[in-house]
Amino acid sequence: MGDKNYSTLGEFIINNQHDFKYSSGELSRLLTSIKLAAKIVNHEVNKAGLVDILGAVGETNIQGEDQQKLDVYANEIFKSALINREIVCGITSEEEDDFITIQGKYNAHDNKYVLLIDPLDGSSNVDVNVSVGTIFSVYRRITPPGMPVRKEDFLQEGNKQVAAGYIVYGTSTMLVYTTGHGVNGFTLNPAIGSFYLSHPDMKFPEEGNIFSINQGNYAHFPQGVKDYIKYGQEEKDNRPYTYRYIGSMVSDFHRNMVKGGIYIYPTSSKAPNGKLRLLYECNPMAFLTEQAGGKATDGHIRIMDIKPKELHERSPIFCGSTKMVEKAESFMKKYTSNK
Ligand code: P6P
């Protein structure tokens, strides 16, 4: 890829700053800080096998999940990039018990954005050298500037998001994001540390045949999901589907967006509310899905219309190629009269 033909992420952010009325450049600085943190985390992820950064820290996070050393490391890198540089007025993270309000020296309370982040999704895969990712979501604060943020600044519906994106630390490292004007993907050239626009205007194919779900939980799934899995296995039309499930949502999502497919993490008797967290996994991925022409629901209603009640609440998610999500919904609808 000749670098000269691709704009860098920095140029792209500046060139598209006009998308924001009254833009004070705050969102541009926020995205630039995420870019910086992504490069630092990428550097560690790529050499994880060589330094004492693998394995668990021996503690659990608020989710009750063993914290991997890289989870904690990535969380600290993104926090410091956004807090020390006083880019946002508040942050919440999968690795934090509660939200963090930022005072700082330069009145960060006046800043207008809050950040919600899953610093390293799928981190249990790092030990086995499988791709992992960071997921982020940005909102304009509700509370007036000049005072500490409150919970309502974070408990906003996904349809209020200002920006969302992910970094996938894979065979190449990519940053993919939206500010509500489509989805664009940037690939890191590690030799010079710049992200280049490699995937402009990404779109979910309307139809696809890749199916991502942990079929190990089949016995625990709702009947509608079981019926949809059987539908995907029939020898008919563009079926049977190809089943691909990496155990790292960002990687499954990215592949499905490029090739066409659906990612499903449904409710089950083992996970009555699903597993993925609404605020910093489902909502940002739903924003990206819709901006790329796909569909994202909880099996019945649009993910981005769910009114959050708790910071770490979970939601089932069906997201990807519109026709595949609608077909899955049609099976779900057969068993829920009141939805
Ligand atoms: P399971 C990783 O922990 C994650 O949040 C997603 O990235 C991934 O798709 C899913 O959970 C894997 O969960 O229960 O199938 O192992």
From TrEMBL:
Task: Pinpoint the Fructose-1-6-bisphosphatase class I N-terminal domain residues.
Answer: 7-200
**Which residues are listed for Mg(2+) 1 binding in this entry?**
94, 118, 120
Subcellular location, in the record's words? Cytoplasm
Catalytic activity reads: beta-D-fructose 1,6-bisphosphate + H2O = beta-D-fructose 6-phosphate + phosphate
Cofactor: binding comment:
Binds 2 magnesium ions per subunit.
Which cofactor(s) are needed, names only?
Mg(2+)
| UniProt superkingdom | Bacteria
Q: What is its main location?
A: cytoplasm
Q: Where is the Fructose-1-6-bisphosphatase class 1 C-terminal domain?
A: 205-333
State which pathway it belongs to: Carbohydrate biosynthesis; Calvin cycle
Q: What class of enzyme is it?
A: hydrolase
Q: What Gene3D superfamilies does the database record attribute to this sequence?
A: 3.40.190.80, Fructose-1,6-Bisphosphatase, subunit A, domain 1
Residues bound to Mg(2+) 2 are 118, 121, 281
Task: Give EC number(s), comma-separated.
Answer: 3.1.3.11
Q: Which Pfam families match?
A: FBPase, FBPase_C
Q: Where does substrate bind?
A: 121-124, 214, 245, 275
Q: Which UniProt keywords apply?
A: Carbohydrate metabolism, Cytoplasm, Hydrolase, Magnesium, Metal-binding
- What family does this chain come from, according to its entry? Belongs to the FBPase class 1 family.
What is the name attached to this protein's record? Answer: Fructose-1,6-bisphosphatase class 1
Origin species, per record, is Algibacter aquimarinus
